[in-house]
Amino acid sequence: MDDHIVILIIALLVLLYGYISKALSRLNISGPMVFTSFGLLLSPLGLNLTQVEVDSGFVKIIVEIALVLVLFADAALLDFKLLKQSWKIPARLLFIGLPITIVVGTYVAMLIFPEEPLTYLLLLALLLTPTDAALGKAVVTDPKVPERIRLSINVESGLNDGIVFPIVLTAVAMILSGLTEAQDNGWMGYVVEQIIFGALVGGAVGYLGTKLTMKSVEKRWMELSYENLIPIALAILSFYLAESFGGNGFIAAFFAGLYAGNTCEKTRQHIEDFTETEGELFVLMSFFLFGLVFVPLTLPYITFDVVLYAFLSLTVLRILPVMICLIGAKLDLATMAFIAWFGPRGIASILYVLIVVHEIGTMEGYETIYAVVTLTVLMSILAHGLTAQPFANLYAKSHKEEHKE
Fold it and tell me: Which of 10, 248, 258, 354 is the 20 to 30 Å CA partner of 265?
């Protein structure tokens, strides 16, 4: 019964937010802020109108589809032609900044949570490494911000999910190998299998699906209204097909999108159209469930140490690695700081936590990790949502010449 109530509430919330979304954006109030707030309001922390378990099928399906669509769309919307011209900054962020973030995040976690096992702390650092451009949407969509800066932030957000996810699987497999003899010494093979089969299945689905789409459009066999639906069907198909063959469905969705979006310009446009409408609905629903389910569940475990690490994760543990990796990139200090600040934690962290809960089968013993992730995301929704447009305006104003170029 609760699931039906949640669906009804989400429908009403979409209507309400849709009617006043533009007015709220002028006040720097974002969709994730609104949906998370309503989730909190209706949760046991507020009016207690409905309760949904974190491991319920409803929550799992919603966030699973949301992550599949996010990874598929992020990969599909990466413009390889533009990336060839401005690849240096994203490469620094992904291949220098990201590893530094993981290492420094793990080390600081060891200092703050010395009683926790190293693998748990590595997992914590990994869960908080992916960034979410959706929480600072104004930064990557405002044409006043120089294109190469917008591209760099967007590419980092789009690719770090896919890079980090196999390492998350590795950390989970390492933890499980210490808990169950059945998986002992077999975690490396499990991870390799997940990555290889996921990539192969995703690439195959993306290749064949795009070819068939192009052929169908050429022969005029397809109704126009279905051109937006085909890519989404490919994303979901790649996920479940990979899972059936022992691969990782999320990696498959990423590779399927990578091929689909960079093979056919028309397909790419339809993916972009879907992402801005139906795709965003699933993301906002995930933030609603985050406020409704995750926050109340982890609130009792929020301590001073949890608050400290969450604050450091959004500031020093993000800003310092980015500033280091951009040394020598011929960027001024304001640009380096702008890129460093806009590393919000959002949808990927939430969904990865759910995957970890699903894989491990319990939250017992991992309360500190989940509490840190929850609080970090909650702080990020507020901090980056409020600063996105003002900081974008301020930065664009001081870099007009670069924008003209």
Answer: 248
Q: Considering only CA atoms, which of 176, 197, 188, 294 is closest in space to residue 250?
A: 197
**144-168 pLDDT per residue, tens:** 888 888 888 877 887 787 778 778 8
- pLDDT class of 180 with cuts at 50, 70, 90: very low
Which residue type is seen at 170?
Answer: T
For residue 269, which of 231, 300, 217 has the smallest C-alpha distance? 231
- Options 1.20.1530.20, 1.20.140.10, 1.10.287.380, 3.30.70.1150; CATH of 2-404: 1.20.1530.20
pTM for this model (two decimals)? 0.84
Distance CA 158, CA 37 (A): 26
- The DSSP code sequence of 186-245 is -HHHHHHHHHHHHHHHHHHHHHHHHHHHHHHHHTT-S-GGGTTHHHHHHHHHHHHHHHHT
Token couple for 249: 């469905």
Q: How many CA atoms lie within 13 A of 338 on its CB side?
A: 28
Closest CA to 122 of 369, 320, 340: 369
Residue 116 CA to residue 306 CA, distance in Å, equals: 13
Dihedral through CA 180, CA 183, CA 185, CA 186, nearest 10?
-170
Tokens standing for residue 98 = 């990201």
**Annotated domain spans of the chain:** 2-404
Contact, 128 vs 316, CB < 8 A?
no
Residues 6+ apart with CB under 8 A from 166: 191, 194, 195, 248, 251
- Residue pointed to by tokens 């890129």: 339
Q: Is residue 40 within 8 Å of 291, Cβ to Cβ?
A: yes
For residue range 34-48, list pLDDT tens digits in order: 999 999 998 888 888
